[in-house]
Amino acid sequence: QVRLVESGGGLVQAGGSLRLSCAASGRTFSNDVMSWFRQAPGKEREIVAVISWRDGSTGVAASVKGRFTISGDNAKNTVYLQMNSLKPEDTAVYYCAAKGTTGLTYDYWGQGTQVTVSS
Question: Quick one: CA dihedral 58, 40, 84, 113, positive or negative?
């Protein structure tokens, strides 16, 4: 059974930093794409950052560019999201997700971790 477990969320003041972790288990994700999404109250879920295990390429949304960094540790099957210079508008539940074997859809999701940024 595939499991994604996020950790590292919490309450932080504006300008602060947090690092989220997503530990994957159940199968090897060495050829897959994993991403971080977030959903704020009353808003649609949006993608924040993506990493391809195959070639290590990464990307982040324009709204977090220069502040957030996605990285991964293949040996630990863990993806990280380093969040710096946090703003109140970054407040959301952050989810880790992984694409399935077809590479077309995000088939696996974590339970989410709350990030709250106070002004």
Answer: negative
The 3-state secondary structure of 67-109, one letter per residue: CEEEEEEHHHCEEEEEECCCCHHHCEEEEEEEECCCCCCEEEE
Residue with tokens 């077809």: 102
CA pair distance 91, 71, nearest whole angstrom: 21
Distance CA 55, CA 96 (A): 19
C-alpha to C-alpha distance for 85 and 72, rounded to whole angstroms: 21
| 28/32 Cα distance (integer angstroms) | 9
pLDDT of residue 32: 82
Per-residue pLDDT of 24-76, as tens digits, reads 988 766 668 999 999 999 999 999 999 998 888 999 999 999 999 999 998 88
- Among the residue ranges 14-23, 58-67, 97-106, the one predicted with the least confidence is 97-106
**Per-residue pLDDT tens for 52-66?**
988 889 999 999 999
Report which of 69, 74, 62, 90 is spatially closest to residue 31, judged by C-alpha positions: 74
